[in-house]
Amino acid sequence: MNIKELNANISVSDQLLSSDISELAIRGVRTIICNRPDGEGPDQPLFSEIAKAAEEHHIQCHYLPVITGKVSDDDATAFGKLLQQDGPIHAYCRSGMRSTTLWALNQAKQLPLADIVATAKEAGYDMSGVAARIAGNSGEMQALKSYDVLIVGGGAAGISTAASLLARNKALSIAIIDPADKHYYQPGWTLVGAGIFTPEQTMRDMASLIPRGADWIKAAVATFNPDSNTVTLEGCRLIKYQRLVVAAGIKLNWAGIEGLSETLGRNGVTSNYRYDLAPYTWDLVRNLKGGRALFTQPPMPIKCAGAPQKAMYLSGDYWLKNQNIKNINIEFYNAGAVLFGVADYVPALMEYVKKYQTELKFNHKLVRIDGDKKTAYFETTTGDGSTEIISREFDMIHVCPPQTAPDFIRSSPLVDDAGWVDVDQYTLRHKRYSNIWSLGDVANTPNAKTAAAARVQAPIVAANIIADIKGDHLVAKYNGYGSCPLTVERGKIVLAEFGYGGTLLPSFPKWIIDGTKPTRAAWFLKEKLLPPIYWRGMLKGKEWLVKPVMSDEA
Question: Where do the FAD/NAD(P)-binding domain residues begin and end (predicted)?
């Protein structure tokens, strides 16, 4: 928490944690305002968690979520009304920028514009774009800077693409836009939830990973303006580009399940899909001696479709080896109709379903959780085609939340009808804007949304952008490759590797790793080799085993 005071009555900061509330109480804060929508980041506590901690310290807590860069006059008015609450008041969002913008717009009729800008600047926030908006000159704004390639998103896909581009042409001017301070190796969270990795092993400072030669614009994108080749950042700032790469990731929609936000991290409710909750998964697993453990999977698309199963298998393995499994009922509730989408891997997985005495429930979608009663509610389809709600009590439940494209993507002109960035599935080039490419979780390509997919896609996007700059008609094509190392037990993995249409695309000959069977070699790959390959190879532009091949566009 980095607190900045705007005046004697209001301060702002980046994302709060529940543990920060006691410090705010010591400072005398009596009202907290949250301006960040739930689900923006993988390490973001939900508002309900902050509100609960605030209540314990007798601090009022208000939820006024604002989509990044889309601060409206109505939002500013609502914020102004909250400023009438008991003070001192503390407002927060991802970085403090939205909260400061709300304050600046609200103060426009009370303070000279120069004072507003100066106060915000002293706190570390650039309000020059907001000043133009207040003055009524937003239509005349000039882009702050122009880049050969602008990359939206500093996750696995975005950083890898930047590194691959610079490996091909160090003279390119490239910027990565991302407001996050931390970067996460999210495939490692399954192993955190099984007590194999620590959370810290999966995290690095973002600044340490930005490729040399690329700028880092630490801000959030508000809107895309593809007709003028610009993007608008929070604070109404403009950045111009020659070519754009959209690698904005995916949004975890915790609010999509009623009651989930209020009980996450307690009452036996956990998820490996959040950095701070994966350790709680391990606490629940090792302390459960008997009862019912539920594992859920929402409708597609989700990132790493095997992750809900991975949690189930590793938990079952621990209980089996500690001789508790006879006292624990394991149940897997899948909104889909099959255990895994590529049939070749199902026989091996079913052996472990039987080994852990797991009860499979297909076409069951988690719709509500009552944490206090430790009861989950599922929507299922009956034989006559109608739906009904069934309930199931639990001692532990691992939840995979429903997922969508980020809000600022879904509201942009770049998307298809489902809200994902609309690209050609082979070249990853946008279908309507020829100087835009997209990859990773946010693209509408029909492949598994995994880090392994981004590892293959990034060099393809880089090669195709370089070809476009040169006017070359040769292109690299993506075959839909994705990989899901299914951790069926501690020490063995079913290494699922496949492309479009479920075509098997193994990286190794069968005598090294037979992906359709559980192997120790695949576990060694997952635990020991893939993390350094990620940190030292993929994010550094080392295209090991994934160097693209150029061919005629036809």
Answer: 147-267
- In three-state secondary structure terms, 369 is strand
Q: pLDDT tens digit string along 269-298?
A: 999 999 999 999 999 999 999 999 999 999
One-letter-per-residue 3-state SS of 332-353: EEECCCCCCCCHHHHHHHHHHH
Q: Tens digits of per-residue pLDDT, 73-110?
A: 899 999 999 999 888 999 999 999 999 999 999 888 88
Q: Is 355 helix (H, G, I), strand (E, B) or coil?
A: helix
Strand spans (E) along 64-166? 89-92, 146-152
CA-based nearest residue to 43, from 234, 199, 240 = 199
Model confidence, pTM: 0.84
Domains (ranges, CATH) in the chain? 4-140 (3.90.190.10), 146-250+405-552 (3.50.50.60), 254-402 (3.50.50.60)
Residue 337 has, within 13 A of its CA and on its CB side, a CA count of 1
Rounded CA separation 207/220 (Å): 16
**CA gap 419, 448 in Å, rounded:** 17
DSSP 463-524: HHHHHHHHT--EEE-----EEEEEEEETTEEEEEEE-GGG-B--SS-TTT--TTSEEHHHHH
What is the rounded distance in angstroms from the CA atom of residue 341 to the CA atom of residue 318? Answer: 26
Q: Which of 20, 65, 71 is nearest to 11 (CA)?
A: 20
Which DSSP letter does residue 60 get? E
φ, ψ (nearest 5 deg) of residue 543: -95, 55
DSSP three-state, residue 74: helix
SS3 string of 201-220?
A: HHEEEHHHCCCCCEEEECCC
CA–CA distance, 251 with 414 (Å, rounded to integer): 17
Strand partners, 172: none
At residue 303, the 3 state secondary structure works out as strand
**For residue 66, which of 407, 402, 401, 404 has the smallest C-alpha distance?**
407
The residues carrying an active-site annotation are 304, 484
Cα–Cα distance for residue pair 327/11, rounded to 1 Å = 52
- Of 264, 261, 352, nearest to 315 (Cα)? 352
8 A C-beta contact, residue 349 and residue 309: yes
* pLDDT at site 158: 98
